[in-house]
Amino acid sequence: MDNGKDLFGYDSLAFFGKVNASISHELKNVMAIISETAGLLGDLSDMASNGTPIKPDMLKSCTGSIMEEIQRGFLTIRQMNRFAHSVDTPLESVNLMDVLDLAITLSGYLSFSGKAHLTPCKDRTPTASTCPFLLQAIIYQALVYTFKSTGPDTAIRISLQAQGDAAWRIIFSGFNANAFQKFPDATTRAMAESIGVVFHFDSTINRLALEVPLTIESTTTEQVAPGV
Amino acid sequence: MMKVLLVDDEQKFALMLAKRLELRGIQTEVFFSGEKALETVEQGHRFAVAILDVKMPGIGGIELKQRLGVLDPRMKFVFLTGHGSKIDYTAGAHEAEEYLPKPLKIDALIATLNRLAEGPPEASNPDP
């Protein structure tokens, strides 16, 4: 395979696989709850058949639980679909809020994930012409490193700040500086460089900023294609 | 009555499964985190079998099994997993007496619990 067209072939695939594995785990949990609830309804039916009085509230609670889990499943599948389509176009104008929202949701499927609060950007729509898949991978990795280091009780704050007309800064705060001792790894750094994303880390105020250029005109489409 | 410890961070799943076990005459104490389950066993509560989810925030099922095993060497273990993957197994899930994938088959779980609670032949599980 031509490396010029496939800078991150295996790493991209590994990221794609990792995210899909966490989504499948989420869906399996949904199915497990539906399965147990349906099983309980079966148990209650058997009891009713044997003459044991069953409270209607219990039946309502079971069906309500099944409906909730079906909605959770649909929502998960919708996120899976959004993620799958992030490889459609190697270079695209994206709303950074959408990219962040998806990365936060996907990282939330990890067993060790904490909470991430995204502050809405009120001034203007934060768009950038970039490679959605690689940007997604970088933000996801930032979240993974934070959650891995600080544990499930973490509540990270994420906000966006315009840097004039040249870039947007995605700012992560609300965590301990130790979280980013190992971030970014070599692959994430290379991915960031390929789309012009720069890391700014200030350990004195426990803040990480990812500077995303408004356009990556200097980087060719071939260079940023994630190789799918 | 058999007494089991059920630990899973998927709260609804754990509660539904506990109800189904209770309906079958198995006393079930549910915890949504490994930390809380450990506290209970540290306080002296005893269970014949612990049913543990492998992937949980904080103390995961594999570490929990090791720590509970120290507190109560007689306790038997069943691991539950949504992954059902080789990774879990090689990470230590094989240390449990049983390893069941979600969604569960309740009859298979009951049969497993009964078998584990009866225990292996005396020679391999001597009384202290």
If classified by CATH, what would the architecture of chain B be? Answer: 3-Layer(aba) Sandwich
Proportion of residues in β-strands of chain A: 15-25%
Principal-axis shape of chain A equals: elongated
The first-level CATH class of chain B is given as Alpha Beta
**Level of helix content of chain B?**
25-40%
Subunit organisation of the chains = heterodimer
Mean pLDDT of chain A: 86
Count of discrete domains of chain B:
1
Unreliable parts of chain B: 121-128
Helix content of chain A: 40-55%
Measured between the Cα atoms of the first and last residue of chain B, the distance is 23 Å
- Sheet bearing the most strands of chain B, described? 5 strands, parallel
- Sketch the major β-sheet of chain A: 5 strands, mixed
Give the strand order, joined by hyphens, for the main sheet of chain B: 2-1-3-4-5
Q: Estimate the mean pLDDT confidence of chain B.
A: 85
Secondary structure topology:
The complex is a heterodimer of chains A (228) and B (128).
Chain A: H1 9-49, H2 56-84, E1 92-95, H3 96-107, E2 115-118, E3 127-130, H4 132-150, E4 155-163, E5 167-173, H5 186-194, E6 198-202, E7 207-213, H6 221-224
Parallel strand pairs in A: 2-4
Antiparallel strand pairs in A: 1-3, 4-5, 5-7, 6-7
Chain B: E1 3-7, H1 11-23, E2 27-31, H2 34-42, E3 49-53, H3 61-71, E4 76-81, H4 86-90, E5 98-101, H5 106-118
Parallel strand pairs in B: 1-2, 1-3, 3-4, 4-5
Helix pairs in contact in B: 2-3
